[in-house]
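Need the bound structure for pyridoxal-5'-phosphate, inputs here:
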Amino acid sequence: MQIYLDHGATSPTRSEVIDLMTEVMRSQWGNPSSLHWWGERSTMVIERSRLQVASLLNADPEGVIFTSGGTESDNMVLMGMARQYQTPQHMIISSVEHSAIRLPALFLEQRGWEITYLPVDRYGQVSPQDLARSLRPNTVLVSIITAQNEVGTIQPIDKLGQICRNANVLFHTDAVQAIGKIPLDMQALPIDLLSLSAHKFYGMQGIGALYINPLTHKKRNIVPLIQGGGQERSYRSGTQAVAAIAGLGLAAELAEKELTQESSRLSQLRDRLYQLLGDMSDLVPTGMMGSDRLPHHLSFYHKHLDGRKIVREMNFAGIAISSGSACSSGAIEPSSVLLAMGYSESEAKNSIRLTLGKSTTPEDVEWTSLVMHQILKP
Ligand SMILES: Cc1ncc(COP(=O)(O)O)c(C=O)c1O
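Answer from helper R.:
Posting the output first, comments after.
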């Protein structure tokens, strides 16, 4: 029996998406910038996808810019924003961002930018009051992750965005983990920029989008990182990956259709697994529980065992999970997210994450609990 519980890392491309991408590669392979019929057909594929992504976000399709995924969208925001300034300014990010935000911020800091890393509480949440206090006259951007990848905590995005809007500061959120799991409505939320990635919601890897809210982003304050033929309204040059974009669009459409029902199914399975693992006193839950947590997400640290060792043993037993710790130059690096949440180095080395998905069944959950009890018994 093989069970995949690592949907936070990537999700399998769904068969409807593979079928559509195959069809597009066979028959709609024209260059969308070409003026002839072949080009027009590809343009129609891309524009349909833009509408589908916009619909998932309840957003203006004009603002959807296709990129190669979450990492590029995140880099585009921080680096593209910084590029318009001759002198370093101030930016605010949280202390639990993905490396696709954290490392560009560090790069800018090393070049004189002032970066505020907002602290989080024990559950991984940023405080709106801290954000309000951290704004300065030269703050040009705030970027806060919508839902944290390692611990599943959802941030109070509406409050954080509103503080930025009141202060006239652009607000970006990395929604890579949240898309398709929780509703995100661009008409209702004060969000100026949002990153997403297809492979977290059953599209293929290497394709994603940056949403640039056309209402609040009138002047061009993101300088393109990739220059060339002026595709994607010049924000992101390069011939578009037509088939991958078509797949992203369909994945978005299906995610929108299924979101309410699937999120509720997943949260029930997640809660059942949580309950089954509850008697293991060495396994300590991390992150928020309840409505401020992603519905498919469970995370823990083990009091004694290294997270990577648990991942390996689970893998031998046919179950894929992940750990927040990473291996760097042969040494185990603790999860920076858990450190920021106030956990000790050893606790942060012992973190694990289980992320459920479309294929997860009640039987998978029961079996996973049995295997974990076996592997982690004292
Ligand atoms: C929160 C978050 N941001 C960004 C990324 C990077 O996205 P991509 O793999 O599409 O580059 C990930 C991927 O795990 C993520 O979880």
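Comments: The chain has two domains: 3-10+259-375, 15-253. The mean pLDDT is 95.
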